[in-house]
Amino acid sequence: MITKATHVSLFVKNQDDAKKFYTEKLGFKVHTDENFSGMRWLTLNAGEQKDFELALMPAETPEEVAIVGKQGAKKPFICFQTNDCNGDYKKLSGLGVKFAEQPTQHPWGLSATFEDLYGNLLYIVQV
């Protein structure tokens, strides 16, 4: 029986650029950065969540290249929990992160939508 999710793959144009964005702007930590049989396996953790990894996968095929920046289409691709949505909004905006939605109160919590370096929409929510 399936018990939990452990990884999600995000296709990127450049692993080093994506690593820099996610670590330096969003505060992610590198979990694994190794070469296996000529393939670089680069995964990151959000905050202190060590049991879920974001795998930054190089887009290589035309199909993969076509979805870089569009993995969630026009909806947020990944939702991250925060303990300070307004503070994160201010900090990330100051670092040049582009927000599609400012912090807004909803029945489920305070949330905001922003873009990664390629235009994928990401979502933060404070519950």
What would you call the structural class?
Answer: alpha/beta
Helix content: 10-25%
CATH superfamily (homologous) name: 2,3-Dihydroxybiphenyl 1,2-Dioxygenase, domain 1
Largest sheet: 4 strands, mixed
User: How would you spell out the order of helices and strands?
Assistant: EHEEEHEHEEE
Low-confidence stretches: none
Number of helices: 3
Tally of DSSP β-strands: 8
Mean pLDDT: 97
Distance between the termini: 29 Å
CATH topology: 2,3-Dihydroxybiphenyl 1,2-Dioxygenase, domain 1
Please state the CA-atom Rg, rounded to the nearest Å: 15 Å
Protein topology:
Elements: E1 7-12, H1 15-25, E2 29-36, E3 39-45, E4 53-58, H2 62-67, E5 78-81, H3 85-94, E6 99-106, E7 109-115, E8 121-126
Parallel strand pairs: 1-4, 5-8
Antiparallel strand pairs: 2-3, 3-4, 6-7, 7-8
Q: What key phrases describe this protein's structure?
A:
alpha/beta; 4-stranded mixed sheet; 3 helices; 21% helix
